[in-house]
Amino acid sequence: MKIIIAGAGAVGTHLARLLSKDNMNVVLMDGDVDKLHKVNSDLDIMTLPKPATSIEGLKDAGVSGADLFIAVTPQESENLACAMLAKQLGAKRTVARVDNYEYMRPENQKLFKDMGIESLIYPELLAAQDIASSSKYSWARQVWEFNGGDLVLLSVMMHDSHPIYEKEISNEDNRLVGNTLKQIGINYGHDFHVVAIKRGNETVVPYGDERILPRDLVFFMTTREGISTIRSLSGKDGYPPVRNVVVIGGGKLSVRTDWALDSNYNVKIIESNFDRCTYLGGVVKPNTMVIHGEGYDMDLLNDEGFDHHEAFLSLTDNDEENILACVAARRKGIRKTIAQVENLDYFDMAEDLDVGTIINKKMIAASHIYRMLLKSDVDNMKMLSVANADVAEFVVKPGTKVTKKPIMQLGLPYGVNIGGMVRDGKAMLVGGMTQLQAGDKVVVFCIGSSLKKLDKLFK
């Protein structure tokens, strides 16, 4: 498959790195030679030092034979223009990154398709949706909902007391730590599946004799009804519901997050630029408070009742500030903390410091685009950076291999765990003897690079 990427920024280079690992034929275009020089030193891909709006440049990149053209430059107008040109010059499918919420409205999608752009991505909007979903429960690290929340994937930290926190969390009510998955199933029923365990830097494929340990990040698949069971068994009953949210930084991501958060939340946005505060006052929700100040000003945070907030979101463009701000918030006892971290090299440090939920816009955008490369019918997909894993929602087609045998006899690739499905509108967990049927929506957890192998079973 030949893929042309226009724009060697954060999203473009991350996509190029991701796709080159899958042995795709990738061409990365950018008018900035210095950006391409850095990419050439890291990746074995073809680069072309020409702007993507150049017809000559597009032809030199081989756009007439491109299966997918991805425009992710910093300029929205450039992305739209070069995607339209690429389509007219023969690209089979085109994707363009935009920054205008109006373009994402469903009624406008046909307009862009008629212009030759099959798909639009708005990274801040996608990230805001993930943040809003993960903010629902103060006791869960991340929350991914499928089929309108009928099926849910939760990641939950099995806490022991942590020395950096002033308010330690006791393990005495956690009934999962120390038990094997087989024991948990026998003692507490089958309201959920453990689909993976992140332990240190390793993601463990769970089997019946696997024991849950302190500091494990456990990924649960459950239905809407099983959420309270997971909370109770994990010892999280004392965690408060989220009602008050403080957001550090008033950038585009914070605005989209404010729109995406539950309307019942009391939201405060702290922004250091006075002019930006004035602008924010006209675009955030009516009940959202905008405060002029520095997000790391502890006196200001204390004056605003910092420790009475259930959720703390640090969404500035400074990764270090976001990480340290979340560490400070957790030391003060705030259970739900979310940090925007764009530098992938900081992920391990953020995990070691236990900053909470990590949001990375370029990985979220990459998930959205990568879905288009799968030959099977995939409704939803997320790349889970903290676990080196993917979660995808497949729609089962008639006559595919997965409909021929029960799940336990399919010979699924190592690292694949089918957690749940929706059949005829009803969400349910699956077992080894479950046999999939055409029309089922199946949620699959894939560790490592197993998603491409699984694609063959569903196409």
User: How far apart, in Å, are the first and last alpha carbons?
Assistant: 16 Å
Strand order of the largest sheet: 3-2-1-4-5-6
Percentage of helical residues?
25-40%
> Mean of the pLDDT scores?
88
Low-confidence segments? 161-172
Quickly count the helices.
Answer: 15
The assigned structural class equals: alpha/beta
| Total strand segments | 22
The major β-sheet equals: 6 strands, parallel
- Name the beta content range: 15-25%
Tell me the Rg in angstroms. Answer: 23 Å
Q: What is the general shape?
A: globular
Q: Could you walk me through the main structural features you see in this protein, from its secondary elements to its overall organization?
A:
By secondary structure, the protein is of the alpha/beta class. The chain has 15 helices and 22 strands. Strands 3-2-1-4-5-6 form a six-stranded parallel β-sheet, sandwiched between helices. It has a six-stranded parallel β-sheet with strand order 14-13-12-15-16-17, with helices on both faces. Strands 7-8-11-9-10 form a five-stranded antiparallel β-sheet. Helix 1 crosses helix 14 (361-370), helix 6 packs across helix 9 and helix 6 (123-134) packs across helix 14. Residues 161-172 have low confidence and may be disordered.
